[in-house]
Write a structure and sequence with these properties.
Largest sheet: 7 strands, mixed
Number of helices: 2
Helix content: 10-25%
Number of domains: 1
CATH topology: ph1033 like fold
Strand content: 25-35%
Radius of gyration: 14 Å
Order of helices and strands: EHEEEEEEH
Mean pLDDT: 87
Distance between the termini: 25 Å
Number of strands: 7
Length: 133
């Protein structure tokens, strides 16, 4: 069982802007976020994901690649440069990151039932807010 973590999509103005920021790191092979502390349970996170919170709901995930000391007293959270849409579930805002057990993680939407990548971000956000996706 892989442990995940949640993080606010700070600075994102929409799901599309978050996706563009993450995917802009594709040439590097990974995106990096800075955190002050190394998660104590980082070994359990192998194969886990970082779940993004936007507008008080988990909206997607990025697979975790690991953690790395950045040489300046902080750590990088290394993620794959892709955003995978998940079934939206409500989640309050918080500072930093929080652990997310696999049993509590939302399911991916990539089962072919809805082409969420083709939906406008505003529509997807409204459908998620209503609990329809």
């Amino acid at each position: 069982m892989a442990l995940g973590m949640t993080k606010i999509a700070f600075g994102a103005t929409s799901v599309t802007s978050l996706r563009q920021w993450i995917e802009s790191h594709a040439p590097l092979g990974e995106a990096r976020l800075t955190t002050r502390y190394m998660p104590k349970r980082h070994e359990e996170m192998a194969g886990g994901s970082l779940f993004w919170i936007f507008n008080k709901a988990i909206i997607g995930r990025s697979p975790l690649l690991g953690f790395m000391d950045n040489g300046q007293g902080r750590y990088w959270i290394r993620i794959e440069p892709r955003l995978i849409a998940v079934q939206s579930i409500p989640r309050r805002a918080h500072q930093g990151w929080r652990y997310l057990e696999e049993a509590d993680a939302p399911a991916d939407l990539g089962d072919g039932s809805a082409d969420v990548d083709a939906m406008p971000a505003d529509m997807l956000g409204e459908l998620a807010r209503l609990g329809l996706v």
